[in-house]
Amino acid sequence: MMVTMKVVGLGIVALTVSLELFGWFLSRLRSRRTLNEVLFFPSKVACVEHTFTPNSHHSCCCSLPHSVETSLSHLLRRILSASTSLDVCLFSFSNMDLSRAVLLLHSKGVSIRVISDKDYSAITGSQIGILRKAGISVRCDGSSVHMHHKFAVVDSRLLITGSLNWTLTAVQNNKENVLITEEPDLVKPFIQEFQRIWLLNDPAQNYQNIKLISTVQEA
Amino acid sequence: MMVTMKVVGLGIVALTVSLELFGWFLSRLRSRRTLNEVLFFPSKVACVEHTFTPNSHHSCCCSLPHSVETSLSHLLRRILSASTSLDVCLFSFSNMDLSRAVLLLHSKGVSIRVISDKDYSAITGSQIGILRKAGISVRCDGSSVHMHHKFAVVDSRLLITGSLNWTLTAVQNNKENVLITEEPDLVKPFIQEFQRIWLLNDPAQNYQNIKLISTVQEA
């Protein structure tokens, strides 16, 4: 009887300790998985070829420094990590490296949607026309005020946001920040905001509205 | 002997279960404490008097809607929660409600530091001169490029950052975002960036540099 009690007692203790350790391990794993990081700009000027073609590290012979990790190369890598979708909502988009990343993802079959400010999508150097010509879904926010967001959502999971417009001046010259997070409480509102602005600028919807206004005016 | 074994066994089990429950309670408390939220703009136009004087909710007789919670009132409340320090790093600062919040905190003895872009600190409506006249420590980033950040850190604990410049147009008209978080991995880099730019624009340091350059030129 005493032996049985001992065995049962020790068994319960062992089980509880195991559960405690398992819980601790899971919580450690969870906290490690939630990515939270900040990049600051201006980025060092360096070759970013290795972010596009990781295996040709030594093959690029441009005059810029090589094998240097910069804020831009890190940002590119986060964007290029997209495997299913990339939603981009930008006031201004003229940076050719960032545009190349979006085009590369598109060529790999990643579903891309781009929203930009109407006024800034037509300025010199804007990549919006190039993305549209490549077959990427682009909508320009047509409201009379600025669509001043500068964010992207990778695979409906990773938020990239901050002060940085995707322009050469912002990347190479300005003091800027980019915050990258997987925290659901921060990512979800941006997914909803993207969807809201995307639908708000649906050309089919706008065409129907114009038709409705014409009908009312004619009546 | 058997009774002793029983008591010791049960005691260990009870202790382990208690520790497990205590750990769970602590982790729940911790996850609840970590604030993560997002505000979107434009903000509804409404009276924000109650955020400054919470007890005089019904005493304001301006023509704007009252008792309405808006993105601006929420942002003001987060800023006004500062009890020891507020560090503000803004490209453009002309919004009078946000300026009033900073001045109110200053009058209560909260330690305030403000960094702004040199070019934009002198434009019409800028609050930078008003803050400086009130005795608040202000430094203007004198580099030839844009200091394009739009962030604030409350009590070295709470980060407020996003696309929103603290201007009336940004608050009332533009599509903008403000991300508010206590996540240390996100807050700490911004504290360091503030300190870096603050020291970079130390007038004493700059005065020494000018003296050094003059001495070299004279030599």
TrEMBL record, chains A, B:
It comes from the Eukaryota. Residues 143-170 form the PLD phosphodiesterase domain. Coiled coil: none annotated. It comes from Menidia menidia (Atlantic silverside). This is Mitochondrial cardiolipin hydrolase. It catalyses: a cardiolipin + H2O = a 1,2-diacyl-sn-glycero-3-phospho-(1'-sn-glycerol) + a 1,2-diacyl-sn-glycero-3-phosphate + H(+). Keywords: Hydrolase, Lipid degradation, Lipid metabolism, Meiosis. GO terms for molecular function: RNA endonuclease activity producing 5'-phosphomonoesters, hydrolytic mechanism. InterPro entries: PLD-like_dom (IPR025202), PLD_domain (IPR051406), PLipase_D/transphosphatidylase (IPR001736). PROSITE patterns: PLD (PS50035). GO terms for cellular component: mitochondrion. Transmembrane segments: none annotated. GO terms for biological process: lipid catabolic process; meiotic cell cycle; piRNA processing. Belongs to the phospholipase D family. MitoPLD/Zucchini subfamily.
